[in-house]
Structures are given as C-alpha cells and as structure tokens.
Design brief:
Blueprint: E1 13-16, H1 30-37, H2 48-57, E2 62-65, H3 78-87, E3 91-96, H4 103-112, E4 117-121, H5 138-150, E5 154-161, H6 169-178, E6 182-187
Parallel strand pairs: 1-2, 2-3, 3-4, 4-5, 5-6
C-alpha cells in the first residue's frame, strides 16, 4: 500500500451497528438490497442502557460505529454514546457517509468526544460522490469533514474506487494533502 494513504482500521476492538436507518441508497448496501426486495430491515436503535453494557466491556479499547444497515449518526442517542466513550477512555471510531444532519448537529457530536476518529465515506471528488452514495451531498459532507479537522479531531477521507471515479484518485489525494486530511483508498468489486 502506498505510504501516502492512511489506514484507519488498525486498532483492535468491536464494530457495532447501532440502528437501521440511513438516508442513502447505495446500490450495493445490504440495507438497499432489503428495501428492493420488500423485506423489513432487521434491527432497531440500540439504546443507552444496551450501549452502556457494551461500553463497560470495551473500556480502554476501541468501538467502531460502522453500520451495515444504518449510518450511526441516525441513532437518537449517538451523541450521548460518544460522550460515554470519552468518559470510559474508549477509542471511538465513526464511519459515516450520510449528509442529512445540520452542521450544528456535527458541532455537538464533535464536542461530545474530541478524541473520536471520524471516517467520512466520500467516493470520488465531493461533487461526484452521490453517483454511488445516492442522496449524499458530498460537498456538504466534505465541508463537515473540514470542520471536524478544524475542531482538532482526527478525520479521514475514505474513497472507494469505482469506474466513475478511478481517474480522480490523484486529484483527491492532492486535495486531502492540501486540507491536511488523512486519505484512505479502498479498491472494490462493487459496481
């Protein structure tokens, strides 16, 4: 792997999906497949009581909020979960691609845990990411990522390579370097 590409998934811990809601309709997402088939989505929002049990077990370790059926930002207790991670010295890592929360919400989330690592799924240049991440406002999410960096958080631009964006990788790397953002490139077989 090239040395100019960051790999955010190196610390041991647990990956949890804390809900079943997302505003995106990514074509290869398990959630979208369920919806297309008319099958009810499994799961529901994890509540604070449930999350506290997980957090007690993973104190001083890593919890990665990364949905299979959801984007973690849509759990109504998410900001409280981030605060609990900070209190318990849990390395909180958030993978998100949805862009339908206001900037003020992100400011609260960033402030709840200034040690959290945020990984933003923007596949391609921000203005083209919606091609795979249907319903995403990539420009808005890019600006949120910059705001997180400005707030002193660790932020990573996760870029999945597709046919539509593979010729833009070099430019994206230059942009990430210009804005002092970590860059994580993922090769995929997704279409």
């Amino acid at each position: 792997m090239p040395t100019d590409i960051h790999t955010p998934f190196t610390k041991a811990g647990i990956n949890i999906d804390i809900g079943n809601r997302c505003t995106l309709q990514c074509s290869q997402c398990a959630r979208t497949k369920f919806i297309r088939q008319g099958v009810p989505l499994p799961g529901k929002d994890m509540n604070m009581e449930q999350f506290t049990k997980v957090a007690n077990f993973f104190e001083n370790r890593t919890i990665h909020f990364c949905g299979t059926f959801s984007d973690p930002i849509y759990n109504p207790s998410f900001i409280d979960m981030l605060a609990l991670c900070k209190a318990k010295h849990i390395n909180a890592r958030i993978s998100t691609a949805a862009s339908h929360k206001p900037a003020s919400w992100y400011s609260k989330a960033f402030a709840a845990n200034t040690d959290a690592e945020w990984i933003f799924g923007i596949d391609g240049l921000p203005e083209q990411s919606h091609i795979y991440r249907i319903n995403q406002d990539g420009v808005k999410l890019f600006n949120i990522m910059i705001a997180g960096r400005d707030a002193g958080l660790s932020v990573t631009w996760q870029y999945i390579v597709f046919d539509y964006n593979k010729k833009r990788v070099t430019k994206a790397k230059r942009i990430a370097k210009k804005y002092k953002i970590k860059f994580y490139l993922i090769e995929t077989t997704r279409k």
